Amino acid sequence: QIRFTATVLLVLVLIVAIVLIVSPFEKEMPTTPSLSENWELLETNAHNSHTDSYLTNVSIDINRKEPFQFSAEYHSTSQSDLLLFVGIDYSNKVTVKPLTSPPLAPSSRTIPVYRKDWLIDSKEALNLFAKDETANSCLKSSKGIIELSLYKTQTIKEEFSVWELSFIDCPGQGKLKIFYLNANTGEPFDPYA
């Protein structure tokens, strides 16, 4: 009786061990800080440096691969050649400096983005992106850079704010994979369609 119980217990332990070794562990979904909660910190520091500055792009580092959790680009209404970087690191320390050369080269995004221009916060945007099977898989498996960016785009018909989720080196998706959401409606869209 004892030998039978020990054998059954050993078989059960081996089965559990095999299942744990063979089945991949599900990686937890990454989270993002709230842009809404950090908006004033970005704006205040930009305006303290240049009172007429306006945001054109903000990126959020989702998987902590970059030195800043928030990286924002500001332009100036009075100085067309002025580009300003405002970054918030992981201890909430703010860095403000002119954008001049790589890695802080300016993007081509120049349309002003104001707080009234977007309704969906970064946390909600990431959850909406995660509903897409491919985006969800990339969020859980990517070891490369994952970045969530807010900017404004313009089509022939309209101008609207966009959340862009980009992956560098998502397994099975190539070097770069990008997803887009309308930052007011939450609807996914293809800017190239």
Number of helical segments with 4 or more residues: 4
Strand content: 25-35%
- Total number of beta strands: 7
Weakly predicted, low-confidence segments: 101-106
**Strand-and-helix sequence, N→C?**
HHEEEEHHEEE
Distance between the termini: 70 Å
Please sum up the structure shown.
This protein is an alpha+beta fold and about 190 residues long. The protein has helices at about 1-20, 35-50, 120-130, 135-140, and strands spanning about 55-60, 70-75, 85-90, 95-100, 145-155, 160-170, 175-180. Strand 6 and strand 7 form a beta hairpin.
Description:
- The protein is of the alpha+beta class and 193 residues long.
- It has helices at residues 2-22, 35-49, 122-129, 133-141; strands spanning 53-61, 68-76, 83-89, 94-98, 146-154, 159-168, 176-182.
- Strand 1 (53-61) and strand 2 form a beta hairpin.
- A seven-stranded antiparallel β-sheet has the order 4-3-2-1-5-6-7, with helices on one face.
Features of this protein?
193 residues, 29% strand, alpha+beta, elongated, 7 strands, 7-stranded antiparallel beta sheet
Helices and strands in order:
Layout: H1 2-22, H2 35-49, E1 53-61, E2 68-76, E3 83-89, E4 94-98, H3 122-129, H4 133-141, E5 146-154, E6 159-168, E7 176-182
Antiparallel strand pairs: 1-2, 1-5, 2-3, 3-4, 5-6, 6-7
